[in-house]
TrEMBL record:
This is Catalase. Keywords: Heme, Hydrogen peroxide, Iron, Metal-binding, Oxidoreductase, Peroxidase. It comes from the Bacteria. It comes from Mesobacillus jeotgali. Residues 1-25 have a biased composition (Polar residues). Its EC number is 1.11.1.6. InterPro entries: Catalase, Catalase_3, Catalase_AS, Catalase_clade1/3, Catalase_core, Catalase_haem_BS, Catalase_immune_responsive, Catalase_sf. Residues 1-29 are annotated as: Disordered. The gene is katA.
Length: 486
């Protein structure tokens, strides 16, 4: 017999349970007695088993693994987990779709979240990215509006292509990401067969305090594979958890997926002269200008033991930083620094960082106390304020973030470079004729349900400005003419 079979069943407060099959009743037929506290506790806990699902990235799968450094980049960053070749750091990753709810299908056309937590000796470090190098919008102030268009219509409670294309057609900065989303890469074959990106620009700082701008690229060692729209739709109906199952089964079988991590590195001064604003997340840096430099290798080799504890309760924020890694003025990133951690405080609780999946491997010494579900010693009798003269933890001045210059007038402005068409057009022209055919077919199918021609025509204008052939083929597919003013 296993140990589990020998253990006695208890209540949540540790008392042995005498009968877990029959509730206590007044007489043989009942009614049920309010004093059956074991029944009440079971039902009350059951009612509260679901924490609120994530507003975005609700459907996801996760796995444990390690990151190994393969290249010495200490001249660029003092981050301890990158300090020597061969160094291994435990990590956890969560893949997800963006728009769908917890029960939605894995094989929908949607970006995929790619969130990595490194348990470093200096605390946790999160890279919270996607499987695309760009995003739909460049300023966090537009994010709630954008996500509303991806969710459900307030009257019909149905997905709303009118809202989707109305917003995109009025937000031309989305064109680059829309082109990626509607291309072959819009539906990965599995979570193992896609790249990952930090997407934003970040700053690395070395031991001397010198900095560079960087972008992260996780390149899959399994190769990139995608699904056609018809195959994806078939799988969505037959096995909506296809990607979740594939990842679990691959790791369980010892077929451990791996990614090589690369960075692009830009000297700080180049940000003032580059032909696109390097902080605009709707734009990429040309790899001809800033080639990929290998950093290390990520391997996923262990499945979660409990989905809720390790995947659903996992919390990631781009503000979870370690010394040697800082942020950039990217307007989307700046908003995410607040929004992600705030979402976790609401969804999981103020003490979410104390949960085993989120708890750092390094020692935590802070003056934060109390709050719902504080399940450790809560700091015991130690001093709970700073500065103090009782030997409490103190700041480490050498780990101050590097200073950076700021200038100008405080005002509501966009990025200086408002060319939203060149990179989308370049991407279109890089595609083979077969890839272009599928891209056009995907866009036409997605836009046909839009009820207003003015929305369709406005979006066609953006495609045309990126590449005349691109816009013309979309227009023809929708039975419309490219607007004369374009």
């Amino acid at each position: 017999m296993s140990n589990n079979q020998n253990k006695q069943l208890t209540t949540s407060w540790g008392a042995p349970v005498g009968d877990n099959q029959n509730s206590m009743t007044a007489g043989h037929r009942g009614p049920t007695l309010l004093q059956d506290v074991h029944l009440l506790e079971k039902l009350a806990h059951f009612n509260r088993e679901r924490v609120p699902e994530r507003v975005v990235h609700a459907k996801g799968a996760g796995a444990h693994g390690y990151f190994e450094v393969t290249n010495d980049l200490t001249q660029y960053t003092k981050a301890a987990f990158l300090s020597e070749v061969g160094k291994k750091t435990p990590m956890f990753i969560r893949f997800s779709t963006v728009a769908g709810e917890l029960g939605s299908a894995d094989t929908v056309r949607d970006p995929r979240g790619f969130a990595v937590k490194f348990y470093t000796e200096e605390g946790n470090y999160d890279i919270v990215g996607n499987n695309t190098p760009v995003f739909f919008i460049s300023d966090a102030i537009k994010f709630p509006d954008f996500i509303h268009t991806q969710k459900r219509n307030p009257q019909t409670h149905l997905k709303d292509p009118n809202a989707v294309w109305d917003f995109w057609s009025l937000s031309p900065e989305s064109l680059h990401q829309v082109t990626i989303l509607m291309s072959d890469r819009g539906i990965p074959a599995t979570l193992r067969h896609m790249h990952g990106f930090g997407s934003h620009t970040f700053k690395w700082t070395n031991a001397e305090g010198d900095g560079v701008w960087i972008k992260y690229h996780f390149k899959t060692e399994q190769g990139v594979k995608n699904l056609t729209a018809d195959v994806a739709a078939k799988i969505a109906g037959e096995n909506p958890d296809y990607h979740t199952e594939d990842l679990f089964n691959a790791i369980e079988a010892g077929d451990f997926p791996a990614w090589k991590l690369y960075v692009q590195i830009m000297p700080l001064e180049d940000a003032n002269t580059y032909r696109f604003d390097p902080f605009d997340v709707t734009k990429v840096w040309s790899q001809k200008d800033y080639p990929l430099i290998e950093v290390g290798r990520m391997v996923l080799n262990r499945n979660p033991e409990n989905y809720f504890a390790e995947v659903e309760q996992a919390t990631f924020s781009p503000g979870t930083l370690v010394p040697g890694i800082d942020v950039s003025p990217d307007k989307m990133l700046q908003g995410r620094l607040f929004a992600y951690a705030d979402a976790h405080r609401y969804r999981v609780g103020a003490n979410h960082q104390h949960l085993p999946i989120n708890r750092p491997k390094s020692e935590v010494n802070s003056y934060q106390r109390d709050g719902q579900m504080r399940f450790d010693g809560n700091g015991g009798k130690s001093v709970n304020y700073e500065p103090n003269s009782f030997g409490g933890p103190t700041e480490v001045k050498e780990h101050k973030q590097a200073s950076f210059p700021v200038s100008g007038i405080a005002e509501n402005v966009g990025y200086d470079h408002n060319d939203h068409y060149t990179q989308a057009g370049d991407l279109y022209r890089l595609m083979s004729e077969e890839e272009r055919e599928r891209l056009v077919a995907n866009i036409v199918a997605a836009m046909k349900p839009v009820q207003r021609d003015d929305i369709k025509l406005r979006q066609i204008g953006h495609f045309y400005k990126a590449d005349p052939e691109y816009g013309t083929r979309i227009a023809q597919g929708l039975g419309l003419q490219v607007p004369q003013e374009v």
